[in-house]
Design brief:
By secondary structure, this protein is an alpha+beta fold. Strand 7 and strand 8 form a beta hairpin. Helices cover about 30% and strands about 35% of the residues.
Amino acid sequence: MAPLLKMLKLSTRVRRAVAGLVACAAAVVQLTACSPTLDWRDVRLPAAGLTLLFPCKPQTQERVIGLAQRDWSAALMACDAGGLTFSALVLSPATTDPGASPAAALDALVQSAVQRWGPADGPAAAPAGLAIPAELGAIWARHRRSGTDGQVVMTQAVFMASGDRLVQISVHGAALQQAALENFFGQLRRLP
């Protein structure tokens, strides 16, 4: 680098400044190369009493939706990393209804996923080698559909009820990576 700068007949001060900028740029490239694609972090879903790992910092959106003839406050956390979208949705009843059935509402949530993501693709079972605590009463689903750009989009999801709240946790992408599924779903736990 130094001989090239001398050939350009730049002053010593300018050569040092250029060399410093090049060194800084090289350091930034090295640091960027070291940052992992999936940067796992613990995220709490306090409304559902759960915790899990997200591979990126999730953004949160909230709104009210209708499901099973009832209004629900929906809190969605989602982020994109490594070509995949990771999300956790918690639905809390917007109003009290002592006669409401959590099982019927959970079934309605699973059916709404079929409408959004297409028919189930394979058995309703956890991915191979993956287990979450049995007390969570998980319902697993895998879907395949064509995205808006014509590309295939795969979805792996789990649905559960936590008290009077409903939970949907899902990963979407062109190719689902087993290690990412294991980290995301496999670390799902009840809050202490």
